[in-house]
């Protein structure tokens, strides 16, 4: 068993799929399957339960995957420290990025960073903010973008966007011509929300509960454009950040400020400061902080 096999195990567990893990690692699916089978034969246990196209860790797989994450993290720290000692300005950064954030803020920043440090590679993992925070706290990702405040201890952060949520409705909705809407007025509406692994999902449901009702959620998605299209089709209403609202075709929906309460949406970059941080990660944080501070 070697470090490469442990990395394969972690990626298959993360994606729940041999095919997706192979794509993320830029190798063939048969190669990753062969490596996992070799591990199973060597250890004498079954690591994954094959459920059609999806796979899940067995009890033994979960135990080994937990140890594998620590071993791989230690290996990355070792190689990063050696690179720093040799004063090589190169490396690899794993960044967690919620899907609705990436296109709005990061292509330009990543492009500029690559020009300055062409030998530093960046691997993006798209997932909900809750999952990203969990992965950074566990050390699986070096850096992540989340909705602040964080819930895990030991995380450092800096904010780069402070906005609020707006109501998005179909033009035929009874509230469509209003200049502002209170949350309590939406108690009888059907909601289209982000999935449960998105912080925004919990925040909206929590605010609705605070104002005396449980929202009727008819659909959940990880894609803001699909959510807005469902609203445009008259299937329900949604609450989206101002940045996302600026990307929506306002001829097909109505966007209305939400009041009582104003629900904040504060984005930040997070990392752990209680473990070794590679040159590449330190430079990325400093560069991103400088560039994204211009957004505020």
Automatic annotation (TrEMBL):
SUPFAM superfamilies (UniProt xref): Periplasmic binding protein-like II (SSF53850), Winged helix' DNA-binding domain (SSF46785)
PROSITE patterns in the cross-refs: HTH_LYSR
Alphabetized UniProt keyword annotations: DNA-binding, Transcription, Transcription regulation
Any Pfam family hit: LysR_substrate
Signal peptide: none
InterPro entries to which the protein is assigned, alphabetical: HTH-type_LysR_regulators, LysR_HTH_N, LysR_subst-bd, WH-like_DNA-bd_sf, WH_DNA-bd_sf
Limits of the HTH lysR-type domain: 1-58
Top-level taxon of origin: Bacteria
Transport among keywords: no
PANTHER family associated with the record: HTH-TYPE TRANSCRIPTIONAL REGULATOR YBHD, NITROGEN ASSIMILATION TRANSCRIPTIONAL ACTIVATOR-RELATED
Membership in a protein family: Belongs to the LysR transcriptional regulatory family.
Protein name in UniProt: HTH-type transcriptional regulator YwbI
Gene source species: Paenibacillus woosongensis
């Amino acid at each position: 068993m070697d470090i490469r096999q442990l990395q394969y195990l972690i990626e298959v567990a993360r994606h729940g799929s041999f095919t997706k893990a192979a794509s993320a690692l830029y190798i063939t699916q048969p190669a990753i399957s062969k490596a996992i089978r070799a591990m199973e034969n060597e250890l004498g246990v079954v690591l994954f339960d094959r459920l059609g196209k999806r796979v899940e860790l067995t009890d033994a797989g979960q135990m080994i995957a937990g140890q594998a994450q620590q071993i791989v993290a230690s290996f990355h720290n070792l190689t990063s420290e050696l690179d720093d000692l040799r004063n090589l300005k190169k490396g690899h950064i794993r960044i967690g990025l919620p899907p609705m954030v990436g296109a709005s803020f990061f292509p330009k920043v990543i492009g500029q960073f690559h020009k300055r440090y062409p030998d530093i590679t960046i691997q993006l993992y798209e997932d909900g903010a809750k999952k990203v925070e969990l992965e950074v706290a566990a050390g699986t990702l070096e850096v992540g973008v989340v909705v602040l405040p964080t819930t895990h201890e030991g995380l450092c952060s800096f904010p780069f966007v402070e906005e609020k949520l707006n109501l998005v409705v179909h033009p035929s909705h009874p509230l469509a011509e209003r200049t502002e809407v209170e949350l309590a007025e939406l108690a009888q509406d059907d909601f289209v929300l982000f999935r449960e692994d998105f912080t925004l999902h919990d925040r909206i449901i929590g605010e609705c509960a605070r104002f005396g009702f449980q929202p009727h959620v008819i659909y959940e998605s990880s894609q803001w454009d699909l959510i807005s299209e469902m609203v445009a089709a008259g299937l329900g209403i949604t609450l989206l950040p101002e940045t996302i609202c600026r990307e929506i075709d306002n001829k097909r929906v109505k966007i209305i400020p939400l009041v009582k309460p104003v629900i904040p949406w504060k984005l930040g970059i997070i990392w752990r400061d209680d473990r070794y941080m590679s040159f590449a990660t330190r430079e990325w944080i400093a560069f991103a902080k400088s560039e994204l501070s211009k957004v505020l």
